[in-house]
Amino acid sequence: MFCFQCQEASKGTGCTVAGVCGKPHDVANLQDLLVYLLKGISFLSLDVRLPEELDHSVSLFITDSLFATITNANFDRAVFVNKIREALFLRQEVLTYRNEQFPDAAAVLPDAAVWQADSEQAFDAKARQVGVLSTSNEDIRSLRELLTYGLKGMAAYTYHAWQLNYTDNEVDLFMRRALAATLDDTLEAADLISLNMEAGKFGVKVMALLDEANTSTYGQPEITKVNIGVQNRPGILISGHDLKDMEELLKQTEGTGVDVYTHSEMLPAHYYPAFKKYDHFVGNYGNAWWKQNAEFEAFNGPILMTTNCIVPPRKSYIDRIYTTGNTGYPGVHHIPEGENGQSKDFSALIEQAKRCLPPTELETGEIIGGFAHEAVMSVADQVVEAVKTGAIKRFFVMAGCDGRMKSRSYYTDFAEQLPRDTVILTAGCAKYKYNKLDLGEIGGIPRVLDAGQCNDSYSLAVIALKLKEVFGLDDINDLPISYNIAWYEQKAVIVLLALLHLGVKNIHLGPTLPAFLSPNVAKVLVENFGIGGITNVEDDMKMFLGA
Ligand code: FS2
Ligand code: SF4
């Protein structure tokens, strides 16, 4: 195996024996083979008119499969073997239509479009040959992978929007065109840089689509205080990012005597009006994903993982953890999709919860969030006034991901040491590094404004664009906003490409720069966009504040 798609890539270069995340080498290889086949399907589907149903199936399959390969989503070999079989079947269907419509097309098709096998052994053998290192030129490899990881992030957003019946054909077609382009050996670095920039454009589009899907379905997030203590009834803990699962779980647990708590990236569900009406939706339990081993043990009740991030579960609670959607782990119960358009059935969790002890208290108090674009704009006058009077000197976008690397304590220290006249704009699980600190307020505006999940990073871009308008600026970079972003997995890649597309410069990424950026590609990003890493709090503070 060779995987360097996330910030934890072993030794800062890549995982080669097993993932630091716990992904076994055979699963990593099978994920590579699945992505390879998605490229083949995409290649064959270009310019071909497919029947509507098949076209839809292709889009869904690509989205679903890319999302399944994202870091910490699915560790289950059987899932990837099945998906590879499905991919081969779907590819054959697409090929049939292609042959009908282009009978004279060149017979030479890329290997990804024609390779066949049906035994697991053959899948494993092929999987070892088609991974990241099969591209020998390190700059082309870097740009192909930057694009592929951006597409994985895009697929995550597309998947969530699709769950709420929001789709965008242009995004789907771009994903196919971009995947097919990674097979094209005639493309040079400049072509691939352009495609990456285009991915940023579609990243903005799909983030806007998901924002529309979430807010139209569940209402505009509201400024909300969330309890971080526990109640005395048994509970179910729901983690990940899928709001549709959140909705269904709340409906099905109503009146059962079982409380529902959010974990990690599901915390922002509390900000939506549609979920506030449930009295048994009682709070948030624990912290960011990487602390789940200890916290899931202490929760005492069932845990539902709707998306990443899963940490390989301990034996002590493996019988209480459930996966659904694109998540999977061998030996863990999986809740399948409902049949014939029915809802998923969470009754197994509810019955188990009734036999469990209430959660063990980890902490008490409240945290505040819900500062998505509409909520911030509702206090825009206050914000603008505070900037004009100098009460707020600068905003720091500190969105992104948390992770288990010790060096991430940088972000807690950075937040603590920021001058009192600065405000942090956050989204994603990165917030857990500072959302329980008492950083105070400026004229009634909390100094940490949480817009929501990493999926809601779009809100931060909308806020920046609206402020640019209010202040009558021509360039988004003239705003008093600095970007000190923590990244971990591939959704952060599409957010980064989207910010670049919006013209944001001088973004700092940490705790380490992506292993998949070759020195030359990193140089292009530094020279054209001012992208940089982080050093230490003191020096970075001086650099950001121009002191
Ligand atoms: Fe956090 Fe993990 Fe949100 Fe990422 S829960 S690092 O995949 O998606 O942020
Ligand atoms: Fe390593 Fe990250 Fe890949 Fe896991 S996802 S194998 S930690 S690079």
Automatic annotation (TrEMBL):
Role according to the record: Catalyzes the reduction of hydroxylamine to form NH(3) and H(2)O.
Positions of [4Fe-4S] cluster binding: C3, C6, C15, C21
Organism for this UniProt entry: Paenibacillus enshidis
Keywords linked to the UniProt accession: 4Fe-4S, Cytoplasm, Iron, Iron-sulfur, Metal-binding, Oxidoreductase
HAMAP family cross-referenced by the UniProt entry: Hydroxylam_reduct (MF_00069)
UniProt: hybrid [4Fe-2O-2S] cluster binding residues: H241, E265, C309, C401, C429, C454, E489, K491
Top-rank taxon: Bacteria
Pfam families cross-referenced by the UniProt entry: Prismane
Signal peptide: none
Name of the molecule in the record: Hydroxylamine reductase
Gene: hcp
Catalysed reactions listed for this entry: A + NH4(+) + H2O = hydroxylamine + AH2 + H(+)
